[in-house]
Model the fold of this input.
Amino acid sequence: IGGDFNLHHDLWNQEGYLRRDVKADELLARLTEERMELRSEPGVVTWASRESQTVIDLMFLNAEADDLVEKCVTSHDPEVNHGSDHFPVLTTFNLQKQPL
Done:
């Protein structure tokens, strides 16, 4: 599950960012029930506008999906974000069939 969650939590906030949303705790509780964990890079800014920046775009995966990840990185390349104030979390999966 990935997207703009617009939530703040110690698990993914950048260093020194102290805001924590109750809804983030609720999200983590639900995702833990589903055995999903944060896969995006904690502390790497995914949104910036004027003087503000924060981590609100996140990727959560279960163990099976995580085994297929080749990379999961946040891109600050303007060519990739197409002028948005959000930086995409680029996630690449290896979906090639594995030999039995």
In short: The first strand starts at residue 2 and ends at 4. Residues 16 and 88 are 22 Å apart (CA to CA).
